[in-house]
Design a protein that fits this description.
The chain has 250 residues and is of the alpha+beta class. The chain has eight helices and ten strands. The strands form three sheets. The chain has a six-stranded antiparallel sheet. The chain has a two-stranded antiparallel ribbon with strand order 1-2. A two-stranded parallel sheet has the order 3-10. Strand 1 and strand 2 form a beta hairpin.
């Protein structure tokens, strides 16, 4: 079956997405070039404007397009996406971009829990915790500082691992399967020490994700993940149930 015939089996909005992606990946539409409007795409594909809008919105969420209110939609400069509704292994994300992942272990030790960390992990202050700090690298460039506290009840062998071979995320996914996650996201100015670890040239806004994970019945980890702000975009996707009396449309 050829590509044109294959397209006819796709939903209308998916055919529009495929058309846009093909033009971007072939180089026909360059970065910052304006793409056809919703009305133009609707006429070209003989669909409703809402169908064309869905295709554009999904590609905007995917980071391939960027919209400017009152101006139009443009081909986006591709930047790594930071998923906020899921927990992924950063090594996998980097490898999927065709880049080389590596890390630098800054700290890996047992500590007594200070009050704030104890509250975050749901344990008593002074109880033991495992503390790790890793710098994650994409083609040798720092893209994330991971400052993580681990509840020993959830992962008693944490300190014995070689995290140069397997990330903390990958290890914890095996030994303490995720049952719940909580994210808090904010823009910060990092401390000089963190800025130096990330290789920042002077003060620069960063994205900070505070993440708590549960493995029933324990709070397993509390992590502070810091990314250079100019290198990452946030993304998220959630399904919305159709309410009685509403109709789902493409």
């Amino acid at each position: 079956m050829n590509a044109a015939a294959n397209d006819q089996t796709l939903a209308p909005y998916a055919r529009i997405k495929r058309h846009i992606i093909a033009n971007i990946e072939s180089g026909r539409w360059a970065v910052n070039e304006q793409v056809p409007s919703e009305n133009q795409l609707a006429a070209q594909f003989d669909v409703s404007r809402m169908t064309a809008r869905r295709a554009i919105l999904e590609l905007t969420q995917d980071g391939m397009l960027v919209r400017s209110q009152g101006v139009g939609t443009f081909v986006a400069e591709r930047r790594p996406m930071l998923p906020v509704l899921e927990v992924r292994n950063i090594a996998d994300e980097i490898s999927e971009r065709g880049h080389r992942y590596s890390n630098r272990i800054i700290l890996l030790e047992r500590e007594t829990a200070a009050e704030g960390i104890a509250i975050a992990l749901g344990i008593a202050p002074g109880n033991p915790v495992f503390h790790s700090i890793l710098l994650h690298l994409d083609n040798e460039a720092a893209v994330q500082l991971e400052d993580r506290y681990v509840n020993p009840q959830a992962a008693p062998g944490y300190l014995d691992q070689d995290f140069s071979r397997e990330t903390p995320n990958a290890y914890l996914s095996r030994v303490a399967p995720l049952s719940a996650v909580e994210h808090t996201i904010e823009a910060i100015l990092p401390s000089p020490e963190v800025g130096a670890w990330l290789g920042l040239d002077g003060p620069q806004a960063c994205l900070q994700v505070l993440r708590r994970t549960w493995t029933s019945p324990h709070i397993a980890t509390f992590a502070r993940l810091i990314h250079p702000g100019e290198s990452y975009r946030l993304s998220g996707y959630a399904t919305v149930p159709v309410q009685p009396g509403q109709t789902a449309r493409n």
